[in-house]
Amino acid sequence: MVVEVKSLARALDVLRAVADSDISLSATMVADQLGRDRVQIARTLHSLESAGFLERDGDRRYTPSPRVFGVSAQIAAARLRIFGAEALRQTVEATGESAFIAEVRGDSSVAVLERLVSGVSWVGRSFPLYCDDAGQALLWDCGRDEVELIFRDTDFVRYSPTTPTSAEDFYRRLAHSREAGYSLVDGESQPGVYAIAAPVRDFTGTVRCALHIEGPTDTLATRAQALGPTIRELADRLSERLGWRSTTAT
Questions:
Q1: Which is nearest to 185 in space by CA: 223, 139, 159, 217?
Q2: Cα(214)–Cα(152) distance, rounded to whole angstroms?
Q3: CA 150, CA 5: separation in Å to the nearest integer?
Q4: What is the pTM of this model?
Q5: What topology is assigned to 6-64 in CATH?
Q6: Which UniProt keywords apply (predicted)?
């Protein structure tokens, strides 16, 4: 058993070295980087290639295979289901409002997890990103040009007087939200519904989803400035559970 654990640890070290590299690596390069015996590293690389986790080119250098990214995505999804449920419970306890986790699907936002205080389920329902409660948080890292590209073919339907009217309008709101550290959405897709959202990152630092709460505008809007930092803190905590390690504001 000890030998098997050591072999697994060595394989993971080798796989991590190749995956973290910006170039393809030979057995010698990996051995030098890890300070290990070249023959042993070559055998491990061959085993990882045979298992489908690495690909080897004509120069006998290795790169991660698509299977690695598939496994990483599966692990990230599993951790989101597990730790997302806990984050939703904590969010409801901290705010007293229904809490949701949403992801991007095409040009829409879709709730994938929820914990309701009242009302009907929103899981699986999609709303346009430009006016959804979690839209700004999901596009948190996008610059003006990227926002313009995302909404290039979008018809900005006015669902309420507060619905964004253009990509530029959306970007102005997004920039303001980034300064605050969380987004406040007042009835943009549903009049009378107020939402507070923050981005959630995965181990790559990429925005993976958004954590948000929603409730009636007449009761939640007055608590927004107090609850905004709480939502941001809970979102950052979930990000850390998904592998995000940055200690700086996002």
A1: 217
A2: 28
A3: 46
A4: 0.77
A5: Arc Repressor Mutant, subunit A (1.10.10)
A6: DNA-binding, Transcription, Transcription regulation
